[in-house]
């Protein structure tokens, strides 16, 4: 017995929750928030948060860590390195992906992947990717997964061999509805992209910028519309992942206005980068290749507007671990690409065979804080909703993560709002060899990250050890509870 009411008191900070900003001390006991108030009694340990803004730890509900693709392409980020980077950037929990390899059961895909996650320093959970929704997968494996607390599914409407056709997507939606899972969707039209790629390659256009030309906003808008329509058909809640353009955001806004259970996610790359970043010497544009693609300069402000009007609910990193030297500029590593090993004379890949995705698990929150809060685009409660609280609601972690209320896990970030930093690859903790935000000026930086009451990072030094993160099993919740085979009213309507 220490003789103290609290193991740790974070004292004198300005607290920002999803709803308000207020001054209080935080008393922590056994890894959870025990009390909020002014002049709390001394704890066994004390941290001064004077002059700091204290937010809940970030929840990054979309990142790819140590994923092993069916084509053998490995994401170079390990759970130990990716979680160190996450914590250094103020993210205390993340949700990454259990792959399904086409032609394989869920259990037989990417063997050992789930066990490797035990090396994480941050808390973690999984979405299950469904690429091959056989009756066995839908009727046996998905319910077993849900029973283990993995209550969210991810489907792709593009990429070969990951994509589902409409009928398969409907089957996944119906399974989620029946057994109680949430569904997330990558929305782009595969055939439209294929047609554009062929035309561009025939014209001899092979640069990274042409990746964006091959998948213009209409391709994303069409698939977003279709995903929402099919989710409406089944009456199944969905989140549209990584919205990059106003055209797709407009579909989500219209669905929300009609009362549909549709949520939108975007990422810092769509808020700060553009076509300009897809161009550069020595194939540098490949560093910013991701799907959906970056858009023409100016589109970023339209995405900010969709954050401000509540259309987009969550900002995630969509972190991908493809280094520039070993994967982005090397023909043959086609993960999440649309082509095979097509090489140009200098050995770099054609645009359609560049691995898709950018690293950003560490920079997600500093970029959002700087561009959002410091530049006055969003207030602090909005920052908290985008960075953790809304994801906690959507993915069954409400009350536990993304909250400063007593009873929540004591995941906290102490932000120095005045710290001015230039983002440099050399200072980051990820295992990837570049950042698309190299040279970016940020105002506001996480000084201390606390995960379940323990100081995980202080002044950039990661103290949390590999293996100290915990798996977050998720029980049934409002958006993911079993609701029968067919939509409400179906029987009445057909009677
Ligand atoms: O380009 C991206 N986003 N790569 C990662 C896979 C995905 O689509 O989420
Ligand atoms: Zn995606
Ligand atoms: Zn992704």
TrEMBL record:
The modification N6-carboxylysine is found at residue 154. Keywords: Hydrolase, Metal-binding, Phosphoprotein. Its cofactor is Zn(2+). Residues 53-455 form the Amidohydrolase-related domain. Carbamylation allows a single lysine to coordinate two divalent metal cations. It comes from the Bacteria. One of its GO terms (molecular function) is hydrolase activity, acting on carbon-nitrogen (but not peptide) bonds, in cyclic amides. GO terms for cellular component: cytosol. It holds the Pfam family Amidohydro_1. Belongs to the metallo-dependent hydrolases superfamily. Hydantoinase/dihydropyrimidinase family. Catalyzes the stereospecific hydrolysis of the cyclic amide bond of D-hydantoin derivatives. This is D-hydantoinase.
């Amino acid at each position: 017995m220490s003789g103290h009411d609290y193991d740790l008191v974070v004292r004198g900070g300005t607290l920002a929750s999803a709803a308000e900003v207020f001054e209080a001390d935080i008393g922590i006991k056994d890894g959870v928030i025990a009390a909020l108030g002014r002049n709390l009694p001394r704890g066994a340990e004390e941290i001064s948060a004077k002059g700091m803004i204290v937010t809940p730890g970030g929840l990054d509900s979309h990142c790819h860590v140590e994923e092993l693709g069916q084509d053998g392409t490995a994401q170079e980020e390990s759970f130990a390195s990716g979680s160190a980077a996450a914590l250094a950037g103020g993210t205390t929990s993340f949700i990454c992906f259990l792959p399904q390899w086409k032609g394989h059961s869920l259990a037989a895909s990417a063997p050992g992947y789930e066990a490797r996650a035990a090396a994480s320093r941050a808390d973690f959970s999984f979405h299950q990717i469904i690429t091959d929704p056989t009756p066995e997968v839908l009727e046996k494996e998905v319910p077993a997964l849900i029973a283990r607390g993995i209550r969210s599914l991810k489907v792709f409407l593009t990429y070969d061999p990951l994509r589902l056709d409409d009928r398969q997507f409907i089957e996944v939606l119906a399974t989620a509805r029946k057994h109680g899972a949430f569904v997330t969707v990558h929305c782009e039209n595969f055939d439209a992209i294929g047609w554009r790629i062929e035309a561009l390659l025939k014209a001899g256009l092979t640069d990274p910028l042409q990746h964006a030309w091959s998948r213009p906003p209409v391709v994303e808008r069409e698939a977003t519309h279709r995903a929402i329509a099919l989710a409406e058909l089944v009456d199944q809640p969905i989140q549209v992942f990584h919205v990059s353009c106003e055209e797709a955001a407009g579909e989500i806004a219209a669905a929300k206005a009609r009362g549909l259970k549709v949520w939108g996610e975007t990422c810092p790359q769509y808020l700060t980068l553009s076509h300009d970043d897809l161009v550069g010497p020595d194939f540098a544009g490949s560093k910013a290749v991701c799907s959906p693609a970056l858009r023409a300069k100016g589109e970023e402000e339209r995405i900010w507007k969709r954050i401000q009007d509540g259309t987009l609910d969550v900002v995630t990193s969509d972190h991908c671990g493809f280094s520039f030297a070993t994967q982005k500029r090397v023909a043959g590593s086609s993960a999440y690409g649309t082509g095979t090993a097509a090489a140009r004379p200098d050995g770099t890949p054609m645009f359609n065979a560049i691995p898709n995705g950018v690293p950003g698990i560490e920079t997600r929150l500093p970029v959002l804080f700087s561009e959002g809060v410091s530049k006055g685009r969003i207030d602090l409660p909005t920052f908290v909703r985008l960075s953790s609280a809304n994801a906690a609601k959507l993915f069954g972690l409400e009350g536990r993560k993304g909250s400063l209320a007593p009873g929540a896990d004591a995941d906290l970030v102490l932000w120095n709002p005045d710290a001015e930093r230039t983002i440099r690859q050399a200072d980051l903790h990820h295992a990837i060899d570049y950042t698309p935000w190299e040279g970016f000026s940020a105002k506001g930086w996480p000084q201390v990250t606390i995960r379940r009451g323990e100081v995980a990072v202080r002044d950039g030094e990661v103290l949390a050890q590999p293996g100290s993160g915990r798996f977050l099993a998720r029980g049934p919740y409002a958006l993911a509870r079993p609701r029968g085979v067919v939509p409400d009213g179906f029987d009445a309507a057909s009677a």
